[in-house]
Structure formats: structure tokens, C-alpha cells
């Protein structure tokens, strides 16, 4: 049996309190799928990868934070090279009582090419 996805990394969502997470907090749950978007114009991090929640009902995207600077280089490079559909990012832990930088933990997997 072939695996459809391979584990790539887990990390906390960085910058959560500085972005749009509060606007969609009630919609975020364990298992919520998120998009990884390369942010080439980020003046703070040359390898910035935004984590985006896509609200289908409102047809709107919300940047809820970023991949941590210390862990984003490989993902940034792959996204920049056009591999935008290779990653699956989901919330694997969420805790409203934790420090903002530890409230959301992400699990990123690599999807098998069809």
C-alpha cells in the first residue's frame, strides 16, 4: 500500500497575535486545512511563508500567521520554485489558553504526486 502523504514537519504558528487569527478564531479547529503562501515582499524575513485560512463562505482569505523563521527555508524554496500544491498544512493542536505564539500547532505533510 502506497502512502498518500509523508510527514514533513510540525511547528507552532508564529506571529498569530499580529495577523487575522482573531477574525476567524471560532472557525479554527484541529484538522482545519490551511494554505502555505510564499510572501516575497516580507521585509522582516526573506524566507517568509504565510499561513492562510480560506473562509469558503465569505470567499475570503485570512493570514493567521507565519511559519517560524528558523523552520521556513525549505518550504519557502519549494513554494518559490512552483511546488505550491505539494504541501498539506493542518492544525494539529489548538489551545486558546496558551501564550499566543503557542496557541496553534501546525502539521505539514508532503502529498504524493499523482
Q: Provide the spatial order of strands within the biggest beta sheet.
A: 1-6-5-2-3-4
**Amino-to-carboxy terminus distance:** 15 Å
Order of helices and strands: EHEEEHEE
Helix content: 10-25%
CATH topology value: Alpha-Beta Plaits
What coarse outline follows from CA principal-axis ratios?
globular
The CATH class, by name, is: Alpha Beta
CATH architecture: 2-Layer Sandwich
Profile the largest sheet: 6 strands, antiparallel
Detail the poorly predicted runs.
Answer: none
The secondary structure category is mainly beta
Structural domain tally: 1
**Number of DSSP-assigned strands:** 6
Backbone CA Rg: 14 Å
Mean pLDDT value:
94
Estimated share of beta-strand residues? 35-45%
Number of helices: 2
Write the SSE topology.
Blueprint: E1 5-12, H1 21-24, E2 33-38, E3 49-55, E4 60-66, H2 73-80, E5 87-94, E6 104-111
Question: What's this model, at a glance?
Answer:
The protein has 114 residues and is mostly beta strands. Helices cover 11% and strands 39% of the residues.
What does this structure look like?
This protein is 11% helix and 39% strand. The chain has helices spanning 21-24, 73-80, and strands at residues 5-12, 33-38, 49-55, 60-66, 87-94, 104-111. It is built from two helices and six strands. By secondary structure, the chain is mainly beta. The protein has a single domain, classed as Alpha-Beta Plaits (2-Layer Sandwich), CATH 3.30.70.2330. Strands 1-6-5-2-3-4 form a six-stranded antiparallel beta sheet.
